[in-house]
Amino acid sequence: MPLNSVQTPSIFSTSETYPRPLFSAQKRDSPTNLPPQTSHHLRSLSLTPHLHRLRLRQARTALPTQLTSPSRPTLSDLIRRSIFLTNTTLISRRLARSFVSIRLSRQLAARPAPEVLVERCVLPAECLPGKKAAVAPALVARKRAVERERVKDRLRGFVGSVWGGKVKEKEEGVKKWEERVGVGRVWRLRRFWEGVGREQR
């Protein structure tokens, strides 16, 4: 066959990059088959009509043995695995979807109002649409947790300020008590000698 009859390879041709008779011993994941090491001449040769007919002939001879292989699943297995869909299966699926949509629409039409659900404790009160800050049911727990942390922070600040004032008051009381009892005499004596030292300076 003359080389001028070789067709130009397409950029979208990804299958059968190399001729199977020439590269049947090589694996697809071989490093020699990587795109940077591809031989464009061999790629163009693999697209020749002669090799294409040869591949079709090999597939025609190998297909009957593969179809009659005992490892091939039966039609009932394919239907059971939902790989092969018959017309009956498609119709039953459509009917099932229709029944589900009809039942769902009826249940939604008979669904009670949000106020009734709140009264029955099915929905929290934060989910009422009439409120200014209506919250989705999935976010109610997070909103309540944030509010609890906010209250805890305020209580910590309040307790800290009150506790600090009480501690100062207690310190003042202890100091006055020390001045009044025997410890206070030592404190007065120390202040006296400190004043004497400052006068001498």
Oligomer: single chain
Helical/strand content category? mainly alpha
The helix/strand series, from N terminus to C terminus, equals HHHHHHH
Overall 3D form: elongated
Short summary:
The chain has 201 residues and is mostly helical. The chain is built from seven helices and no strands.
Question: Could you describe the 3D structure shown?
Answer:
With 201 residues, the chain is mainly α. The protein has 3 domains: 3-67, no CATH class; 87-135, no CATH class; 138-200. Helix content is 60%, strand content 0%. The protein contains 7 helices and no strands. The protein has helices at residues 40-46, 49-67, 75-80, 87-109, 114-119, 140-180, 182-200. Helix 6 packs across helix 7 (182-200). The protein is elongated, with a radius of gyration of 45 Å. The N and C termini lie far apart (122 Å). The model is unreliable at 1-33 (pLDDT under 50).
